[in-house]
């Protein structure tokens, strides 16, 4: 009967072996690329330790890598997911916001929470966070950490300084996959972007791949694609 149910739904239960303090994680939901570049992006994550996803909003960078990481966790191919990003908004960092570190950082985690909940389920996500299998870490607080046996996502990397990027990259440990996403045209910090600097330094290095998205790869809507074009073309002002 169980086999028939799996065949009928096209999904196979993962994590049937229970461990103390853990629950079954849920079902693997295949990440289907919506275009050729998303396909290259997925392949790179599967075959390289470090992947850069570069391009405008709406191209699915955050969704694809986060959903892929969730599936790896469901299959127990990794021990945890770590999500980080710089806390930069209107020129202010975490120190300007009230509350604890995690309370301050929670709004920045909202897009990831939505994606992870859609793949893992909200209840499972809460449990995995309690077990520290899904962690959110402000970039400003990763000093001293080592990323071993995990999937690490650095988002909005255009707002990382070269010094912060070097600190982040030197945290990479054994058996880890790292994805760095950003849009160089949307930098909100003064000075040089650590994303651009790292791409130039590391491009061509074995185990490192740069995947570039364009406005043509936007998957949100035709309107978003046209809006991006209009903002890029000074003749439309």
TrEMBL record:
It comes from Dyella telluris. Signal peptide: none annotated. PANTHER family: PROTEIN PHOH (PTHR30473). Residues 31-231 form the PhoH-like protein domain. It holds the Pfam family PhoH. The lineage of its organism: Bacteria, Pseudomonadati, Pseudomonadota, Gammaproteobacteria, Lysobacterales. Coiled coil: none annotated. Residues 1-22 are annotated as: Disordered. Belongs to the PhoH family. Gene3D superfamilies: P-loop containing nucleotide triphosphate hydrolases (3.40.50.300). GO terms for molecular function: ATP binding. This is PhoH family protein. Keywords: ATP-binding, Nucleotide-binding. GO terms for cellular component: cytosol.
């Amino acid at each position: 009967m169980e086999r028939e149910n799996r065949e009928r739904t096209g999904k196979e239960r993962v994590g049937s072996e229970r461990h103390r303090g853990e629950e079954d994680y849920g079902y693997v939901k295949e990440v289907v690329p919506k275009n050729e570049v998303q396909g290259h992006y997925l392949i790179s994550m599967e075959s390289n330790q470090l992947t850069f996803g570069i391009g405008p909003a709406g191209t699915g960078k955050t969704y694809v890598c986060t959903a892929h990481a969730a599936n790896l966790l469901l299959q127990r191919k990794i021990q945890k997911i770590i999500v980080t990003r710089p806390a930069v908004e209107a020129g202010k960092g975490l120190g300007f916001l009230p509350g604890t570190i995690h309370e301050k950082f929670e709004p920045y985690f909202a897009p990831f929470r939505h994606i992870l909940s859609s793949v893992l389920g909200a209840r499972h996500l809460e449990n995995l966070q309690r077990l520290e299998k899904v962690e959110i870490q402000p970039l400003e607080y990763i000093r001293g950490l080592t990323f071993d046996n995990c999937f690490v996502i650095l988002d909005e990397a255009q707002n990382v300084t070269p010094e912060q990027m070097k600190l982040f990259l030197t945290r990479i440990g054994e058996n880890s996959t790292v994805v760095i996403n950003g849009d160089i045209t949307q930098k909100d910090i003064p000075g040089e972007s650590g994303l651009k600097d790292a791409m130039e330094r590391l491009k061509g290095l074995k185990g490192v791949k740069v995947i570039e998205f364009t406005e043509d790869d936007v998957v949100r809507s035709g309107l978003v694609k046209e809006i991006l074009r209009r903002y890029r073309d000074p003749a439309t002002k």
